[in-house]
Amino acid sequence: MKEKILLFIPMYNCKNQITRVLQQIDDTVKELVTEVIVVDNGSTDGGRKAVLEYIKNTNNTGFIKLLKNRENYNLGGSQKVAFSYAVENNFDYFIILHGDDQGNIHDLVPYLKSGEYKQYDRFLGSRFMKGSKIQGYSKFRTFGNRVYNLIFSIFLGRKLYDLGAGLNCYKVKILKNKFYIKFPDSLMFDYIMLMASSYYKHNIKFFPITWREDDQVSNVRMLNQAITTLKYLFSFFFNKKSIETKEFRKKIIDNYEATEVK
Questions:
Q1: Where do the structural domains in the chain lie, given as residue ranges?
Q2: Would you tell me which of 25, 115, 144, 208 could form a disulfide with 131, CB atoms 3.0–4.6 Å apart?
Q3: Is the pTM here over 0.70, yes or no?
Q4: Across all residues in the chain, what is the average pLDDT?
């Protein structure tokens, strides 16, 4: 049987980019992906209207769905919403493509066609490995990312090429026990997920992607994020069991809920 693949696009105030992201979903992608969900995290810029108009004008009703979070859960929380959706609807694989049009789903297409992604629990896009292409990314940020990739590789005991690109694929099977539910809802979510994958011995493979920054607006506060990331990494290194026991969230949310917007 053909695998059920969910494509998840998180959206927050990226009205100018979200339509371009949806336009990436051409006939080739439609042959490989079972369903697309755009999860809006409380946008105030008219992004939901843009998505609904795109769905209607391109006859994608039913294939592309727009969901709105009950409240602002941040990016990590939106991923939890989408993880639950994938598990509850019996998907086999889960793809995340950020809604700000920095990544391109077609970088993953060759691996979807060949079936290589099936060999791994997490098949992760990398901006910083051989074959990757970066556009509009400063040399300073590139250097900083490479340094952090090296630090994480040393502490986690395996070569890591990117700590958090916006194009990744997961095997839904590893998400069913919701080991991630106490992880931060902030941008720290992906970093903790890598530590968890080290702890749970997930089978991981990186693949090169194209990454560009044109009219995107970054929500990353680099210095604060860098310091916080190191604190999490050092804490994990000295107490790996904390991945199972620690409550990382500043705000406890019992249920990450979203409703479909029509």
A1: 5-261
A2: 208
A3: yes
A4: 94
